Amino acid sequence: MIFFAALAVAISTWLFIPDRARGRLGFINEHESETVKSVGRHFSLTSLTDSLGSRKRKVANKQRDQTLSAISALASELTAGHSPETSLINVGSHVWPLAFAASERGSDTTLALTLDARARPELRSLAACWQVGLNSGAGLGASISQLCIALRAQQEVRAHLEAELAGPRATAVTLGFLPVIGIGLGYILGAEPLAWFVSGLFGVGTFLIGVGLTLLGLWWTSRIAGRVEANL
Q1: Residues lower than pLDDT 50 in the chain
Q2: DSSP string covering 33-53, please?
Q3: In this predicted model, what pLDDT tens digit does every residue of 32-66 receive, in sequence order?
Q4: Helix, strand, or coil (residue 11)
Q5: Hey, which of 44, 87, 134, 210 would disulfide with 40, CB 3.0 to 4.6 Å?
């Protein structure tokens, strides 16, 4: 029995150890980081903690990447000598549909970019550069190029921050799984923990309090991480 209990503890520890240490080596060797990450996704439950609640973050990151690519293409169009309206049209309508339509109609593109920024916040800075460039005649292409550099730097900081926050998230979910592992170890050692939980009022109360505190801890950790990301 002791051997099986030790084996269960070893397996659970191996599954839950986060591969953050080697993941951070990606800043030195990107190819090795991708290899380690792909292996970790198959053999570590840390990947489960990365995926829980991350769908929204992945969609937001993909949207930011699309926006930055469009702004970079817009800067290239302006640097090549195209007019602002023509540049907006050449880049396309997938990022700024209202500004695209305004360019085709010859209406106020600055206002349209401001409205598009409700769905893509990065466009607020673009709309400010757009307004200053059109009103003052300053180099619009150069200012948008600098804006693109600043936004990409901000995106890199956000990516590093999300990588650092993955550790606390993994710890929280790991702690959430520990009661399950404890119950499993109890059965391995010959006890019947679930039967005790439902055998009386005290057991049921203990079970409900434990589940409530676990869920509260998961929610609280997610809330702290979400606030840190929102303040970036």
Answers
A1: 1-6, 9, 15-52
A2: HHHHHHHHHHH-THHHHHHTT
A3: 444 334 434 434 444 444 444 567 777 888 888 89
A4: helix
A5: 44
CB 165 within 8 A of CB 171: no
Nearest to 184 by CA among 3, 5, 39: 5
Distance between the two ends of the chain, CA-based, in angstroms? 51
Q: What stretch of H or E contains 197?
A: helix 193-197
H helix runs in 106-192, sequence order: 109-116, 123-136, 140-188
Contact 229, 162 (CB under 8 A): yes
Q: Identify the sign of the CA torsion 104, 108, 112, 114.
A: positive
Give 191's Cβ-side CA count (13 Å radius): 12
Q: Which two tokens stand for residue 43?
A: 């053999």
Structure tokens at 6: 């030790």
Q: Which residues contact 92 (CB under 8 A, 6 or more apart)?
A: 70, 100
Residue 73's alpha-carbon distances to 62, 133, 147, 153, in angstroms, are 17, 17, 12, 17
Residue whose tokens read 């986060």: 18
Do 92 and 70 meet the contact criterion of CB atoms below 8 Å apart?
yes
Distance CA 44, CA 49 (A): 10
